[in-house]
């Protein structure tokens, strides 16, 4: 497919990158439907039947019942696959010096302009590359390959979807993923310098890339940044009423919403085996996050597309590797100087974000040149508010360009 010219890689790309498309075997889809039909649901309990569809004790049974039925009778993966394949897809063969070979899947749009800015867009858990398709769709409508100001690269992180899984005999951390992604951009795609946009795990990995590869990563824009409270001074930005409300809400999230992350960190084997054994278990574990972490609940088919992607690629277990590094005993924090960002840093604040970091906090972690608050949007910013998020990215780029001209 020509993709209107958006699938033509930049001139410096190596032959380690090949065109690719998504094609899930029908047998895999048939097996999913069989399992959905055969899987019983837990009985109604006080905890899963709270009045007014409250989710304070977890996902409600009525939602699981209705969504399971929709998944097995009305949801069309082939329709989702057709939309996904309307964008250019590739796989890049990356050989990491420490962990060995990886095939990294990515979707993207490529410009014919010699001055196009490469942007690496990074998702997290339980997200996937699908989160950024709304932005890609918007940009391919707004521009042509001759006018697009950017090269957009949206990979599946190692262990996610169509990218290779981490090895089973060695541990993988964000530094490993950072090496692989930097090699994807520079060695494989021939893009000597680039910027990053990231959310969730993409924030953590993006910070590591920026800290470890400043000669390549020239700027980074984030829409969250988990960190402990820093030491503030009288020169710090004041914390606004909306920021304080976000911090107050985050206290409740830490008490009632974050235990999943500690389970991922301390019992990833158990969680991975559970989620890989039952699509209904995966639906409950992941579906709850799309309900609770968003401002407005995404379209049901969009939620199911992401969950189906986890199931058919069998990545529910292989995507948990990052949690050991950032949660539980001896956890690392992006509030430390190890991942301090010296490049220009941009930040977008969304009110329903689960880790709503105030400007005063984010200022302590890097060279903050752009910060904007929004009155709507949640944790999955690229999926929920693609226009708002991308406007911020473009305004951040303009701020960086203005600095460089002075």
Automatic annotation (TrEMBL):
It holds the Pfam family EHN. Keywords: Hydrolase. Residues 19-132 form the Epoxide hydrolase N-terminal domain. SUPFAM superfamilies: alpha/beta-Hydrolases. InterPro entries: AB_hydrolase_fold, Epox_hydrolase-like, Epoxide_hydro_N, Epoxide_hydrolase. Belongs to the peptidase S33 family. This is Epoxide hydrolase N-terminal domain-containing protein.
């Amino acid at each position: 497919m020509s993709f209107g010219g958006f699938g033509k890689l930049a001139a410096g790309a190596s032959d380690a990158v090949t065109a690719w498309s998504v094609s899930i075997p029908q047998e895999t889809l048939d097996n999913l439907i069989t399992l959905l039909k055969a899987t019983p649901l837990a009985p109604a309990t006080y905890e899963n039947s709270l009045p007014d569809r409250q989710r304070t004790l977890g996902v409600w049974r009525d939602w699981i019942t209705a969504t399971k039925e929709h998944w097995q009778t009305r949801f069309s993966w082939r329709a989702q696959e057709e939309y996904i394949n309307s964008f250019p897809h590739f796989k890049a063969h990356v050989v990491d010096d420490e962990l060995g070979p990886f095939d990294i899947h990515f979707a993207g749009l490529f410009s014919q302009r010699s001055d196009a800015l490469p942007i690496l867009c990074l998702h997290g858990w339980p997200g996937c590359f699908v989160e950024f398709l709304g932005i890609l769709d918007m940009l391919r409508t707004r521009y042509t390959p001759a006018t697009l100001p950017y090269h957009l690269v949206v990979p599946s992180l190692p262990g996610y979807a169509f990218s290779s899984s981490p090895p089973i005999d060695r541990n993988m951390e964000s530094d490993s993923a950072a090496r692989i992604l930097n090699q994807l951009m520079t060695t494989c795609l021939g893009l000597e310098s680039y910027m990053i946009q990231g959310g969730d795990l993409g924030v953590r990995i993006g910070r590591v890339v920026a800290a470890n590869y400043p000669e390549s990563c020239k700027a980074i824009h984030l829409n969250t940044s988990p960190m402990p409270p820093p030491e503030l001074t009288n020169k710090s930005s004041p914390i606004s009423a909306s920021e304080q409300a976000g911090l107050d809400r985050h206290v409740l999230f830490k008490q009632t919403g974050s235990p999943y992350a500690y389970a991922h960190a301390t019992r990833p084997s158990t969680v991975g085996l559970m989620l890989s054994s039952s699509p209904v278990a995966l639906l409950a574990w992941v579906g709850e996050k799309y309900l609770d972490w968003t401002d407005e609940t995404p379209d049901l088919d969009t939620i199911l597309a992401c969950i189906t992607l986890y199931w058919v690629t069998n990545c529910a277990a292989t995507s948990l590797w990052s949690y050991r590094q950032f949660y539980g005993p001896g956890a690392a924090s992006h509030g430390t100087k190890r991942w301090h960002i010296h490049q220009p840093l941009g930040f977008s604040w969304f009110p329903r974000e689960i880790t709503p970091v105030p400007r005063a906090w984010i200022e302590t972690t890097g060279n903050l040149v752009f910060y904007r608050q929004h009155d709507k949007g949640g944790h999955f910013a690229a999926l929920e508010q693609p226009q708002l998020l991308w406007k911020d990215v473009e305004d951040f780029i303009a701020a960086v360009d203005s600095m460089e001209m002075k």
